[in-house]
Amino acid sequence: MLFEELAELTGQRNAIDGRLVEIVAEIDRDQLGGATGARSVPALVAWKTGWSPANAQTITTVASRLDEFPRCVQGMREGRLSLDQVGVIAARGGTGSDEHYAQLARCATVTQLRTAVKLEPRPEPNPRPEPERSITTTTNEHGSCYRIALGHHDAAKFEAALASHRDALIAEWKHDHGNDAGTSAERPPLPSTAEAFVRLVEAGWDAEAARRPHGQHTTVVVHVDVEQRAAALHLGPLLTDAERRYLTCDATCEVWFERHGEVIGAGRATRLVNRRLRRALEHRDRTCAVPGCDATRGLHAHHIRHWEDGGPTELANLVLLCPYHHRLHHRGVITIKGTAGALVITDDQGRSLRPGSLARPPTQPPPAVAPCPGPTGERADWWWYEPFQPQPPPSNN
Which are the contacts of 113, defined by CB distance < 8 A and separation ≥ 6? Predict the structure, then answer.
């Protein structure tokens, strides 16, 4: 009985996932996610369903290739194939392989499908391009591990800088401990490459702090014509109201008033979020304040009541926003009102954006689909598998 119930519930879940794929595909096709303020379709799915980002990415990947794999998605709607199985196929399956994988997935596990997709013939890759600069971080209770990807030229400069700082640390070590009368066991160890890396970061940090005392900000110089109510960047173009508010939101703003091209005075220049206030703001607001956005890097300090409208530079009037939602706000797409502890964020239709899942108790019976016994999962030896052979393009002759 338990196995029968497990198969029945699995079939119903697969069918529900199939319908969710079709809904997400329709949202993506009609670009309905922009009205919610979500940064992307996966972020919207994770927000509205309560799923993890990985599951949301899987269902979005399947939805984006719905037209290429209709048989596989139909297998989900019939309860025979799971979202994980079709997700593996949609992630890397070649064009035209829908029927092949729809049959294979009936008896193959997710692990076997991953192997099958890897064996699929693919065109020869282009010459390997220079890798993009990237840093990934893995954190546990013992500390953090950083993985840095650099091109050959950048890697050479990085290694030279590390070597230079390590040599400087070793010279300092020898100066302090080289003539020490104590035994070698009492001396501290030689500086490591990791210590040289920290010294390199500190040196760059100190240089940036010396160059710009408030490292989070830039200085924006704006010229305002008091008669025409027009503003322009210094030696730059005219600004719209939204651009003026955005550029002066988290920057040192220097305003010069002019009449007939002649300077008649300077406005306020103090609206900075200083380092101490910025740290308190980051400690309170770890992510972007817009519901459904989990951005944590490159956040802007935003005045809820705009500074140019008399809003104070205080914690109660400040929130952190990612650049994407910051621009949306100043373009009028989303509205942010209230105080930091009681924000009211609405879209351009006046609808409130709230976090959490939109799941509701079901009001309809579960879909009537056949129970899903699951893949048979026999051992797939290499010679048992016949890889999918894509059809050659039609000839123009």
Answer: 85, 88, 89, 101, 104, 105
Give the mean pLDDT of 224-237.
68
Nearest-CA neighbor of 83 among 101, 107, 103, 110? 110
CA–CA–CA angle 82, 84, 88 (5° rounding): 120
Q: What pTM, to 2 d.p., does this model score?
A: 0.54
Structure tokens at 249: 């939101």
**Using CA of residue 286, residue 288, residue 290, residue 292, what is the dihedral sign?**
negative
Strands 252-259 and 230-233: unpaired
What 3-state class would DSSP assign to 172?
helix
CA–CA dist 385, 115 (Å, integer)? 10
pLDDT winner (highest mean) among 97-106, 122-131, 370-379: 97-106
| Residue 96 DSSP label | T
Per-residue pLDDT averaged across 41-65, rounded? 89
**Average model confidence (pLDDT) for the chain?**
77
* Distance from chain centroid for Cα 233: 31
CA distance 260 to 264: 10
59: closest CA among 26, 32, 34, 30? 26
Backbone angles phi, psi at 353, to 5 degrees: -100, 120
CA dist., res. 152 & res. 131, Å (int):
9
